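sorry for the late reply, my laptop died twice this morning and i had to redo everyting from scratch. anyway the thing you sent over, i finally got around to it. pasting the sequence first so we're on the same page, its 137 residues, then the predicted structure underneath. double check i copied it right bc i was rushing
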Amino acid sequence: MGQTEFDQLLEQLKEGAAKGLPKALGVNFTKMEKGYVEAEIAIMEQHTNIYGIVHGGTLYTLADTASGFATRTYGVRVVTTNGSMNYLAAGKDTSKIVCHARVVKCGRSIAVVSAEVFDDKEKLLANASFTFCVLDQ
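ok and here's the structure:
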């Protein structure tokens, strides 16, 4: 894939990010490279649990979304087949959460991605691993 084709792919991915759940949660992609994505969510009340801490589902969804888009930078469509997250610290007193997702392997039928989620002070809140089914090449 040449640079022009890759740039077109990135534009398509940014358009896709403005739809569905990523749009509803306010996912903002701040960096996209082949095999690597950074994304963030500005924390609002709907992202928190009853204690005012960032909900674990918000952390997981950001990591899953960023990981899927990191895989999509290879020009393939994917769906999550498995995900595992370790919650390491509470997301409290933060204005945003940030995810760094890096593709470990993108094969013909599966892809594996490693992700980390941080608060606005760069404190590691969670790490995760996702496996995706590659739908097409």
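The chain has a mean pLDDT of 93.
thats about all i looked at so far, will dig more tmrw
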